[in-house]
Amino acid sequence: MEVETPHYSVIFDDLDKRIVHALVVDARIPFAKLGEILGVSEQTVARRYRSLRVRGIVHLSGQVNVVPLGHARWIMRIRSTPDAALRLGESLARIPDLSWVSLLSTGSEVMCVSRARSAQRRDALLLQLIPRAPHVTGLLAYEVLHNFPLDEEWPRYSRLFDADQLRELGPRRPVQDRAVHELPIALSPEDEAMLAVLGRDARAPYAQLAAATGWSPPRAARRMSELIDAGVLYFDLDFALERMGFAVRAALWMRTRPADLAAVGAILATHPEVTYVAATTGPTNLTAALVCRDTSHLYRYLTERLGALEGITDVEVTPALRVFKQAQTLLDADRINPVP
Hints:
alpha+beta, Arc Repressor Mutant, subunit A, Alpha-Beta Plaits, two-stranded antiparallel sheet, 27% strand
């Protein structure tokens, strides 16, 4: 077993990366099991995970996929006067139904993702709150038609494990859109209470979930598994990318020939720089999120990897000048802060 001194380096090292990969695969993996896989003690894993959280490098949360609930995800590009774009982004980051709020490189455009869980909340955002906000001059809303599962979730650290360790971790359940066969899944007040706790901490103990719902811990565990199996609940990691050596985030807005859309999306999902790719409605039909180490890395990706793909007829690249909010965290300089 590895022996670690209490004063290890504050650098994001290989052990940190392996812990992160394990959490991407299984957010609630017991630290004792993870320690056995990694060859370190349970206490070392727990201490490293706490340090990553306290230093504002990672945050693990439970997220709700609205598709099985009968609703759609929307990606919005909101244009404003240049002097108001910063304030607009900060305001949108405080809205619970919105995530991935960024100021784009145009300087007068904010991008965000809406995951409203009712038609009323969706319409309030798209038709009232945002269009009527001061200094907003335009809104483009893209409905997400299909999310292409990544071949490996970012940051793609599986290379740091051997084959036996990967087998012990097991496969990650991909977050996939599921067709609503009959009626959308209905959530009870107890479900909502449990999801609220997991939204703050994906590793909340079953006793805490039981206290929030009034259920027993075994019942809370069963219901959480049911929601995961139904595609409603999934777990997501937010990262302070700059602390991990990545300085550039960008969005791609691509137009492909309809016959090539599925193939291009599937190929993009294998690219190491891609963290998200989806087919959408709107003036472009495919969008992707990129993470690169610097602008030279972004240039090489666009000219060498993206440029080699057949079927893309047009592409717009919009780097993020500033990211206000990720899935469940606000960004303050180079650290992340969980949403209260």
